[in-house]
Amino acid sequence: MSPQTASISRQDSASGPPAGDRADPARPAVPVGLVIAICLVAANLRTTLTGVGALLPEIEHGSGLTSSWGGLLSTLPLLTFAATSPLVARASHRFGSARLLVAALGVLAVGTVVRSLPSVICLFAGTVILSAAIAFGNVLLPALIRRSVPAHRIHGVSALYVTVMGLMAAVSSGVSAPLAHSVPGSWHTALAWGVAFTVAAFLAWLPRMRGDKPQASTGGTHSPVPWRSLVAWQVTLFMGLQSLAFYTAVAWLPSILVDRGTSSTTAGWMLFYYQVVSLAASSLLPLLTRGRHDQRWTAAGASVLMAGGFTVLVAAPALSVLACTLLGFGGGACLVLALTFQSQRAGSSGEAAALAGMAQSIGYLVAAAGPLLLGILHDSTQSWTLPLTVLAVLGIGTAVTGHGAGQDRHIHQPSR
After folding, report:
1. What percentage of the chain's residues is helix, strand, coil (to nearest 5)?
2. In the chain, what percentage of residues exceed pLDDT 90?
3. For the chain, first and last CA: distance in Å?
4. Contact (CB, 8 A) for 147 and 97
5. What is the pLDDT of residues 251-296, one digit of tens each?
6. In this predicted structure, what is the pLDDT of residue 108?
7. Among 37, 54, 103, 267, which residue is least crowded by beta carbons within 10 Å?
8. Which helix H or strand E contains 304, and what residues bound it?
9. Cα separation, 208 vs 199, whole angstroms
10. How far apart are CA 78 and CA 6, in angstroms?
11. For residue 312, which of 395, 398, 388, 399 has the smallest C-alpha distance?
12. H-helix or E-strand spanning residue 174
């Protein structure tokens, strides 16, 4: 899941009516067709990205790319997210959310096909195109849910689409390498398998363009970006560092395991396992921490688990299952906390929007450094020891920032 998407969905769900209203049987249900259409979009928001990590060893071998260029390939989506996401709101107000989503799905299909063509230029150009389309989907889908789904159903529908997004991301990691070994075109074809879901989502949303009109500005209260707030920077850095760990693991974990003697197919399924554990942790944590506002030690502990996973990969690479388990539990918990802090540490909805914008724009830039840095370090040392040690140390830094971000205070309050 992309961070911005889940963050907005949680903010939206928090604004729903009281529990008693949600239980009212007289409340309208969500049309099944709309739910299916939403899930089809969600299935596209990570599928074309997470499969690249499982295929990266073969991409590098087949195209002659170095690890540094492979790191850049994994970093491009994050840089594109950071550059594109701020443009979505204005475009939505001008053209309409449903129309813009259909256009984004069309661009996503084109970008996916371009990326799979037998050309290094197309590989990178297609990645930028499809990443820009996904950035639009990340922002538009929660807005469309809020507009189209009854208030008492928003939480359930949002949880469903986040789950579908995570499951499809894991499936993509698991099946991409086996597909590359069994279909004509090898990894080129495997990069494009998700286009079937893109076409399905495009067709599902095409009829929903009718009656879609540009949205007028709501004229809500605007809060300035809290650049001078220590709390805001702690939330932002925690967001960025935990995202760096996730996207770096998705990009390089299969390559690390293959370099240590694992087959590419097994390495892809290990990446699948890591994401399934992460999804389980992100689903369970809200139940375990319900009603708790001070989450300093939860954030610090989850970060230490991530650091422990990278340490195991360095010290005992044969225990890759243990490493992926630690990384999954720690990373899944950190993701939920990072998104939650963006709402909890704000004193108003305006402050929440400003804090989320700061945390996610800078967070994507911080995360983008991870895959590229690991590739450069590996090329320089011809070993994964130093790169993984750096990630373990950054895990301790994540614990420090998470401890600060987890304190029960708001961005306008002085640090305690």
Report:
1. 80, 0, 20
2. 34
3. 33
4. yes
5. 889 889 998 888 888 888 898 899 889 888 877 887 777 667 788 8
6. 97
7. 103
8. helix 296-315
9. 15
10. 16
11. 388
12. helix 154-182
CB of 134 closer than 8 Å to CB of 2: yes
Do 30 and 157 contact (CB within 8 A), yes or no? yes
Distance separating alpha carbons of residues 360 and 61, to the nearest angstrom: 34
Would you give the distance in Å from CA 240 to the centre of its chain? 12
Give the residue from 406, 296, 413 showing the smallest Cα distance to 342: 406
pTM tops 0.85: no
The CATH architecture to which 1-13+30-216 belongs is: Up-down Bundle (1.20)
Radius of gyration over every alpha carbon of the chain, rounded to an integer in angstroms: 21
Residue 265: the pLDDT is 84
| Sequence spans of domains, the chain | 1-13+30-216, 224-416
CATH 2.60.40.10 fits 224-416, yes or no: no
Higher pLDDT, 367 or 413: 367
Selected residue with higher pLDDT from 21 and 316: 316
Q: Which residue, 142, 296, 141, 136, is CA-closest to 204?
A: 141
DSSP secondary-structure letter at 31?
Answer: P
What average pLDDT does this structure show over 344-349? 69
196 or 409, higher pLDDT: 196
pLDDT value at 349 more than 70: no
Contact assessment for residue 280 and residue 331, using Cβ atoms and an 8 Å cutoff: no
Amino acid at 403: H
Report how far apart, in Å, the C-alpha atoms of 333 and of each of 229, 292, 330 are.
25, 15, 5
∠ CA 122-55-360, rounded to 5°:
75
Average pLDDT over residues 156-179: 81
Q: What mean pLDDT comes out for the span 199-205?
A: 95
CA distance 188 to 52: 11
Average pLDDT (137-150) is 77
* Integer Cα distance of 294 and 409 in angstroms: 9
- Cα three-residue angle 165-83-126, rounded to 5 degrees: 65
Residue pair 280/386 in contact by the 8 Å Cβ criterion: no
User: 209 — phi, psi (to 5°)?
Assistant: -75, -25
Query: What six digits make up the tokens of 340?
Result: 């939650």
Is 89 within 8 Å of 378 (Cβ atoms)? no
For 97-110, give the DSSP string: HHHHHHHHHHHHHH
The C-alpha atoms of residue 250 and residue 246 are separated, in whole angstroms, by: 6
